[in-house]
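tool_call: predict_structure(chain=1)
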Amino acid sequence: MTLEAPAVPPLFVGSEIYRNSSYGPKHPLAVPRVSVCTDLCRALGWLPDAVYREAPMATEAELTRFHDPTYIAALRQAERDQSVSAETRARFRIGADGNPVYREVYRRPAISAGGVMLAARLAAQGGIAHCPGGGTHHGRADRASGFCFLNDPVLGLLTWLDLGLDNIVYLDIDAHHGDGVQDAFHNDPRVLTISLHEAARWPFTGAADDRAGGAARNFPLPAGCNDSEFEAVMQDAVLPLIAARRPQAIMLQAGADSLHEDPLAKLSLSNNAYRAVVQSVMPLASRLVVLGGGGYNPWTVGRCWALIWGTLNNHPIPDRLPPKAEATLRALRFDRAIGRHPPEHWMTTLLDPPRPGPVRDSVRSLIKESLSA
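tool_result:
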């Protein structure tokens, strides 16, 4: 595999596959996300053609670097037939557990995987790539899990390993523990997985004492975790851990379901916390890939991921969005209660009001436990 040219300035890996693609009208992933981020970045003048790269569909050979060939064949068959047998459903969890059969059930995750692997190659010689369509961190080698049919972070990390990197940090700030990535690199000293997630939330893994054979560090955060608590964990525990390792590359999974307004979790971050994470990790490695992930409120996800792209490029964040960006946000619809009367700043700004608060004893204990390890 050959390396791509150095990625300077940051590159955006996207695809139109996500536009008008849905897991179904009643599924949390019925909402637009990547297309909102892309449209906002273009409306802000932040996404010229020169920095945009089209995500390719991963080949079967690339997918089976991690995934079982029989599972990949079943996923392709599910897209062709738009249905699965009871045996396939039971064995591969396609069409079960929130992993529906939908129109692009193979193509969409295969393009997400191809995009993340491309992002890894683009950054491999030194640079930054943002791939908001990636981040499906629950996928298993032989089955779907947690809305994730493939595990594109694992495939991206394997791309780096195949290119000769051997000191990588995977940082996951999704509200749900990155169980599929952690398990894929269990006891592998080349990849340190770090996950900040809501405690006692599905998949109910990622306890503070779970070290995956020395290859993981987990920070289960209490419900209601605010910006101040998140900053304390990052500054006092996570960033020193990364800095001490001096990684060659960092992959950041920036699932936006840790935001206060997300319907599938109970953390209380503003997108200022995401911006701070990006700003903090950028100087810590010469290679950085930022992915999307969870996030089920179209306004908060699209604004957060566009904010991340602006931060990666050191763009000033406008106090008021230009009319075209505002129109993108005003056109969104969301059938949950909060979507019927969304606050005005969701339409007119990218940056949320901060959500500071007291740092609870449980958070201080979590930091202390990590420092004593």
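agent: Residues 227-245 form the longest helix (19 residues). Proceeding to next step.
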